[in-house]
Amino acid sequence: MNPAPDPDHGRPDHPRPGRPRPDYHQLAAVGPYFALDTAASPDAAPPPGYRPLPELYGTGPDAPLAGRIRVVAQRLGTTEPRVAASILHLGLAARLWSVGLGAAVLLGTVPRLTHAWVRLPEQGPIDLWAPPEPFDAPAPDPGRLADRLHEIVLVGQLEPLAAAIQAAVPLSGRLLLGNAASALAGTLRVLDAHAPGPARALVAELLDRPPLAGTGTLRTGPRGTAFRRTSCCLYYRVGPGAGVCGDCCFTRPPVRPGPKTRP
Fold first, then answer.
1. What is the phi/psi pair of residue 172, to 5°?
2. Is the peptide bond before 52 cis (omega within 30 degrees of 0)?
3. Are 84 and 73 in contact (CB under 8 A)?
4. Starting at the edge strand that comes first in sequence, how are the strands of the sheet with 37-38 ordered?
5. Which of 122, 202, 203, 244 is the 20 to 30 A CA-CA neighbour of 209?
6. Contact indicator for 173, 86 with CB cutoff of 8 Å
7. pTM as predicted
8. pLDDT in tens, 86-98
9. For the CA atoms of 221, 142, 190, 177, what is the dihedral angle to 10 degrees?
C-alpha cells in the first residue's frame, strides 16, 4: 500500500516567528490514550524499547501484531483468534484516533506520525514517541482538520493496521471499519468534556465520509453523545457473561449454534 500523501511536505523545519510549535505533551492530561511523547531536538533518539511505527504493521507469524493477538487471546480467555484480533484492533484504533482527534480539537493541528515510534507495554495502550515535526500552524478550519484526520489517521495508520490484522487473522473489512468508527465515537465521548462543539463537528464529518459512512449512527445532545454501529466487534464471543458493547448492532448476544447432531 502506498503511504498517504504528506500534506506538509516541503514546509520549513522551524517555527514561524510568534507561532510556537504545538505542545503535544498537553494531550496526556486528557488520558493515557491521548498521550504523545515528543522530543525537544530533531537529533534526539527514541527511548529504549521503541521501534518505528510502520513496523507495527508488519505481517507474518513473527510480526508484532501476530504475537500481540496471541497475548490478547490468552488474557481474554478465548480460543478464537479473530475475537482477540478484533478487540486488539479496536484498542489500537482508539489509541490512534485519540492522538489525532485530541490534537485537532485541543491544539488546532494533527501530528503527522510519519516518523513516530511505538512501544508495546505489558498492559495498557501502546506508547507513542515522535521527533519534532516541521512547523505546522494551527488550522482553525474544521473542514481542513477533518481532511488531515482522514489522511493522517484513517488512511495513513488505520488502513495499514487493518491490512496487517487481516494478514494475521481473517476478519471482514466491514467489521474493521465498524471498529474504526466505534473507536472514533469513543474518543469523542472522552473529548466531549473538554471541547464538545469542535469534537462533535469533526467526528460527524468523518463518519459522513467514505469509508466510514454507513458504519453507524451518531447522536449528540445536551446529555452527551451516543453511537450505534451497524456491525459487531465479536466481544460477546469472549464468554457466556461477556454481553454486548454499548454501541453494538445487537441488543443482546446472538445465540451461538450448538454442535450438530445426527438424527
1. -75, 150
2. no
3. yes
4. 37-38, 127-130, 117-119, 51-52
5. 244
6. no
7. 0.87
8. 999 999 999 999 9
9. 90
